[in-house]
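User: Run a structure prediction on this.
Assistant: Running it now.
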Amino acid sequence: MGHGSQFLKKILIIYIVANLIVMALKAFTPLGQNSIFNLLAFVILSIFTVYLLYLLIKMGKKL
């Protein structure tokens, strides 16, 4: 159980960092005004979120 929660903490940190990077890119670069970039960022975050949910379900079944 302890090992699993450690793993989830790492994933959560990675997810938060990824979100911050995307927000920073949107705020501080001309790409932020580019709708294609916004769409790409949204798609990447969506895929990552789905992957996270998949991992959580997998972990839940294991425990």
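The CA atoms of residues 6 and 19 lie 20 Å apart.
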